[in-house]
Amino acid sequence: MWLDPANPQLNKNGELHHLLSLEGLPAGILRQILDTAESFVGVTQREVKKVPLLRGKAVFNLFFEPSTRTRTTFEIAAKRLSADVINLAINVSSQSKGETVLDTVANLSAMQADMFIVRHAASGAPYLIAKHVAPDIHVVNAGDGRHAHPTQGLLDMYTIRHYKGDFTKLRVAIVGDILHSRVARSQIHALTTLGCPEIRVIGPKTLLPAHVNRLGVQVHGDMRQGLKDVDVVMMLRLQNERMNGALLPSAQEFYKYYGLTEDKLALAKPDAIVLHPGPMNRGVEIDSSVADGRQSVILPQVTFGIAIRMAVMSILAGN
Amino acid sequence: MPGNPLPDAESLLASLTDRMRPAVGPATGLVGIHTGGVWLAERLHAALGLKLPLGTLDVSFYRDDFSRKGLRRNVKSSDIPFDVDGCDVVIVDDVLHTGRTIRAAMNELFDYGRPGRIRLAALVDRGGRELPIAADFTGAAIEASAGETIELTRDAAGRLALQLTRN
């Protein structure tokens, strides 16, 4: 087996072959991706926002679960690398005709795919695909179930490094629906690997995973207490579908206790930055005055996200 | 390095500067190629008293060996802080060998605009060209065989030196 059995994302030289999760990736690889992305930020500010790196390569966006923003940013990133991009919204195509995931992938591989960008509602689906593709094909996880969303985690790390520099001096809070959030999991793994000494997760008990403290984080039920003196506030999206179950009484009540308002943000450090992976529910997890305020770096996150995805795709394609 | 067979980089830089002086002016844009070319371009920029700010290129995203070698680690940012359209550009590199780096640099430069003219300055021309590319200004021509690598180094005091390694 030419991939490392302990970490199937890495080849036998310890280089990144697939990007499936940030868990278990060495700090050196995370920094390599962040550094490479920094060079791509410059490219996107030029007259010609394209480099010829992936010319002639075919990148397939395989979205088994709907997503506009993530799919679009992957598409823009691939096009800026000069790759050919094919978008497939599988939930409305073959799957509804009964084809299995692996048959779909085998068919697309026969169309000379070089890279699959996979979004799936089931945790682990990108692993399954990565295990079955030909050795020269690369797989990028664009979000799988509650498990991981590595490129979102990386663009958050890029944003934090851009504004705050050194991770080893930072106090970071992650707020909201931790239980269902693949974003939170990727953030926690990346922050830990990059040496962040204090990660706090803040949310109601019903939206915190059991034993979350085993990930090495502090748990806070009281948002005011949890935000005290933090450098970075990472908000999570409250998924509307969670409202229907027994987990939350109402959006209004969630906003009252866990919505980021100006007076709650005032408890953090005065120069603290506010991140949100989007799409935002204004008035549920974040107040408009904060989302559009001077501490918000939510739109720069989107711009950096393109550079991060360019970096990931070009590093994978070269390994 | 004992018995260094290569000429002194500082004196080569001095003669390169003298050769370029009559050929550059206030409209000349200097662009160094990472890493050695940037060190040289910084020194040339100061010595020639050029007006346009110094540009830098990392050609990693334009290399023709990407599919064989992949992306180099420590890619630097390219930065061209002047308008390339119509500009009189001089690309600066340390060692001119196959010409492939210069081809990549020219391709990247064109993604910033359409230069009026591009010329090439290299501290050392070691021959072995694989593309129809020639330097307009050189410090020296040095014979080197295929198995040898010539590299520019810079010490803590900023002094440049040439280093020969045999693979």
Describe this structure as you would to a colleague.
The complex is a heterodimer of chains A (319) and B (167). Chain A is an alpha/beta fold. Chain A folds into two domains: 138 residues, Aspartate/ornithine carbamoyltransferase (Rossmann fold, 3-Layer(aba) Sandwich); 148 residues, Aspartate/ornithine carbamoyltransferase (Rossmann fold, 3-Layer(aba) Sandwich), CATH 3.40.50.1370. In chain A, the strands form two sheets. Chain A has a five-stranded parallel β-sheet with strand order 7-6-5-8-9. In chain A, helix 1 crosses helix 5 and helix 5 crosses helix 12. The longest helix of chain A is centred in the last third of the chain and has 21 residues. Chain A is globular. The two termini of chain A are 16 Å apart. The model of chain A has no long low-confidence stretch (mean pLDDT 92). Chain B is an alpha/beta fold. Chain B has a single domain, classed as Rossmann fold. Helices cover 23% and strands 28% of the residues of chain B. Chain B is built from four helices and seven strands; from the N terminus they run H-E-H-E-H-E-H-E-E-E-E. In chain B, the strands form two sheets. A five-stranded parallel β-sheet of chain B has the order 2-1-3-4-5. Chain B has a two-stranded antiparallel ribbon with strand order 6-7. The mean pLDDT of chain B is 94. At the A-B interface, helix 1 and helix 12 of A face helix 3 and helix 4 of B.
